[in-house]
Amino acid sequence: MAGDAEGARSGGASRVPLDAEERAELDALRARLPERHRLRSALASLLIILAALLAPLSVVAVWVADDVADTDRYVRTVEPLASKPDVQAAVTANVTTAIMRRIDIDTLLSQVAPDKRPGVKEALGALNAPITEGVRNLVRQTVATFVASDAFRTLWAQLNRRAHAAFVGALTGDSGTAVRVEGDTVTLDLAPVVEQVKQRLVDSGLTVASNIPPVQAQYTLIESENVKRAQTGFRVLQLAGNWLPVVTVLLAAGGVLLAARRRRALATVALAVAATVAGLGIGLSVFRIVYLDRLPAKIDERAAGTVYDQMVHFLRESVLMVIVLGVVVALSAWLSGAGRWAVRVRAAWVSAIAAVRQAVGVSTGPVGSWVHRYRHLLHWLVVLVAAVVLVLWSYPTGMVVFWIALAALGALAAVEFLDDRRRPGGRTGSAA
Prior knowledge:
Elements: H1 2-11, H2 20-69, H3 71-78, H4 85-100, H5 105-108, H6 117-124, H7 128-147, H8 150-162, H9 166-172, E1 179-182, E2 185-189, H10 191-203, E3 218-223, H11 227-240, H12 243-258, H13 262-293, H14 301-311, H15 313-335, H16 340-360, H17 365-373, H18 375-392, H19 398-418
Antiparallel strand pairs: 1-2, 2-3
Helix pairs in contact: 2-3, 2-11, 2-12, 2-13, 2-15, 4-7, 4-14, 7-10, 12-13, 13-15, 15-19, 18-19
């Protein structure tokens, strides 16, 4: 009613003035519009902030669920450790020490007749130490040879496959796997490695090794005062599961849809998510330094660093993937907008492809007319296909996102190349 009256006032010779009631109603509507706009903008900003804050937790939740629940993926994570020189050296030292605790002069003389042992032992005298050291060198060499072999890598993979819940055991305190948590230390039981080495020692001539009882050799995976804290956080992430990333995406989508300027909101949430996830990546590097700095002196720092890097390998790949995806989405939102530089970039893009088409002398004919008619649909189809490929890709990396974006860019270039923008009169339409 108020709108019709106002239109009558401005649209023709007969102007109908608003009465007091109509003017009050119009003023009330005008007053509510900014308030509603502010409320909507505030809610959109809140949703975007929540999405950005939940993004790092979502990345960690996906990593925990996939690396722990999927046996094959866990094995792929830890399998390369068997070939790392620092880890091989640490395993060699631990197994050698465990075996030598069971071998001394008395063990070496176990095959000598009991009535002759005192005499032989007395005759050896000062040779006890050199003999023991010689045996230690033999054991160390045998262990090192085995640890560097394919047999050890196979055994390492089998050990971790049988205990594919090892990382769960480390973070939940489950003692039913090959990984155990005692206090603030996470250790891996290397008893199967000792058994293999014992047999190799027997084959090399040290037959007394067959008398060595079962030996518990343990390799420290993690030793930190933060293990207990990590157990609590891990349980929370287990409860969150894979729904946390869905909630994060829904929050981001809600913030974009509520925003008055949706392209700008999309670019903002993409960059905000990329920034917070980048913070997670920085945090992983900082925590590595702090963790290694606080290791006890008995722990091999280089081996511990190698284990840490391998354990978070897929997490770091996920961090890089989200960063690249955020940058690609933000750049796409900016380029599709009405900003001065975005328009210039699009114009340069169209001009460059038109120059290529003119240089090669290709006539698109009816195909070009059809492409021009459905160009917007084709553009959205390219975006949709790229999104579906990314969603269906198993464990995409930053490079996967880059190549998908590059392929989509190539498809858009093909559409532009085939687009015949000619109009009646020989003129060329502007870029759409």
